[in-house]
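ok new one. same drill as before - structure tokens go in, u give me an amino acid for every spot. 488 of them this time. try not to just spam alanines like last time pls lmao
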């Protein structure tokens, strides 16, 4: 099955055919860095991370660009979000930008999201934005009024094609600060004049001011990916007006389609309610990572299709933790079995059909518009098969175990990012872990030999509390690591 994606622009699922065979150029609208990122950001950027990971897994060369908005994203009141953050913290706007940009990167690293290849900042591309605005004025798509420049929506007949909205139906005030100086309420700002108290300002042909929110993405996407590229990703809430305005100004600039495929991630609520600081239900990524392992948060996000909404709650995360444990426990058991000495009669078990079937089912799921829940289902089926194997053959041949471990690393690790990083390192920390466990097992055996059962039981109980199970058998004591719980 070839890769099929749901294209918001055409409102249908269609085969994915990149402009250049084997290469994918992808742009995703990044965060406005004026506060700590929240779990809604996690939903969006983990979803985009999975798309990039799978495209690369299939052998495609992906150039992934994600911008940082550090100017021009205005509130309904017309106030720049960065300036709001600066006033809140009584500091310089660029200090706010640096603080929360680093916080965002730390959060994404914590969630194990692969960093984009290029992360341009809006303030670093003001000359490109000014040049684009000048070109739009020259071509009759924009006009200047008292130092501000607006895009003339009536100059492009296809405005609204992404969101399905008609220009005549758009209401005044649907976006920020509608000014009487605009020719029509639907026109949007490309450049805003800076009032005397406005701190963030640049010189331009129209006087000192700052760029609008939408023009930054057109300028930076065009610079790094070209006038026409493959994929534009973002959240559903960005379809209108942001993405719609991007299309209008970008296609007016080049005369070419802006992006061929538009992929949008569904929204996130908290306990069934839209997340809002005023409601007190806003959860930052850093707080979520203190409560749950990154892999559990990723598993929770992937348990719903990326285009679908999802509800964040303690019950939902607890359920995700339990599901993740069931999925990952056979992978950890496989790694633990590899650390045990081979049994003298451990013949190789032919597991190749199960491996091939799992890869095929996984790929079929992901080729269906990156259907991560179905991909997880394929891995759950595989987990049952591995559990059955290990129950019948506690120490299968290395060839079989290594093949199982490789598949887990490939699909659960490299593509989905839900495999604990340490489980893929049987030589480093795992080797030290093996030495320590063997030492504790020997100390416990010596205690039992001298009938010091208090010490023996204490070692076993404390290891059990740490997630390590000791199992006594005819050939001695073995140990295994239980999958950590969501609150570990």
């Amino acid at each position: 099955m070839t890769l099929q994606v749901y294209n918001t622009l055409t409102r249908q699922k269609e085969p994915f055919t990149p402009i250049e065979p084997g290469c994918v150029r992808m742009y995703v609208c990044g965060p406005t860095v004026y506060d700590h990122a929240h779990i809604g950001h996690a939903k969006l950027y983990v979803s985009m991370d999975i798309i990039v990971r799978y495209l690369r897994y299939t052998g495609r060369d992906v150039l992934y660009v994600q911008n940082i908005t550090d100017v021009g994203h205005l509130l309904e009141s017309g106030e720049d979000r960065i300036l709001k953050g600066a006033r809140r913290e009584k500091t310089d706007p660029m200090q706010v930008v640096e603080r929360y940009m680093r916080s965002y990167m730390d959060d994404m690293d914590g969630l194990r999201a692969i960093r984009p290849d290029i992360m341009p900042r809006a303030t670093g591309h003001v000359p490109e934005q000014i040049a684009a605005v000048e070109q739009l004025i020259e071509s009759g798509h924009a006009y200047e009024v008292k130092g501000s420049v607006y895009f003339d929506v009536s100059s492009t007949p296809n405005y609204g094609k992404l969101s399905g909205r008609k220009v005549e139906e758009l209401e005044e005030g649907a976006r920020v600060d509608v000014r009487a100086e605009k020719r029509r309420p639907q026109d949007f700002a490309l450049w805003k004049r800076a009032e005397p108290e406005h701190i963030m300002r640049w010189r331009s042909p129209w006087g000192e001011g700052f760029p609008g929110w939408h023009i930054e993405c057109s300028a930076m996407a065009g610079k790094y990916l070209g006038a026409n590229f493959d994929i534009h990703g973002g959240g559903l809430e960005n379809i209108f007006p942001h993405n719609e305005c991007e299309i209008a100004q970008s296609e007016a600039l080049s005369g070419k389609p802006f992006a061929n495929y538009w992929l949008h991630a569904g929204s996130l609520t908290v306990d069934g309610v839209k997340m809002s600081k005023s409601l007190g239900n806003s959860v930052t990524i850093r707080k979520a990572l203190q409560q749950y392992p990154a892999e559990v948060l990723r598993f929770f996000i992937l348990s719903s299709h990326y285009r679908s909404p999802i509800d964040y709650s303690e019950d939902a995360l607890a359920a995700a933790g339990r599901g993740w444990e069931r999925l990952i426990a056979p992978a950890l058991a496989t790694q633990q079995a590899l650390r045990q000495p081979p049994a003298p009669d451990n013949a190789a078990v032919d597991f190749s059909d199960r491996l091939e079937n799992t890869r095929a089912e996984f790929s079929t799921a992901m080729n269906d518009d990156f259907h991560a829940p179905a991909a997880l289902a394929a891995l759950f089926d595989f987990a049952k098969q591995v559990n059955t194997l290990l129950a019948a053959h506690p120490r299968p041949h290395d060839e079989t175990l290594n093949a199982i471990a490789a598949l887990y690393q490939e699909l659960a690790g490299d593509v989905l990012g839900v495999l604990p990083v340490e489980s893929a390192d049987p030589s480093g920390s795992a080797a030290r872990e093996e030495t320590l466990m063997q030492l504790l097992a020997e100390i416990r055996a010596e205690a039992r030999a001298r009938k010091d059962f208090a010490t023996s039981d204490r070692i076993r109980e404390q290891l059990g509390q740490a997630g390590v199970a000791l199992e006594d058998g005819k050939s001695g004591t073995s140990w295994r690591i239980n999958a950590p719980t969501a609150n570990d």
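Residues 4-265 form a domain with the Rossmann fold fold (CATH 3.40.50.620). and btw Residues 172-178 have pLDDT under 50 and may be disordered.
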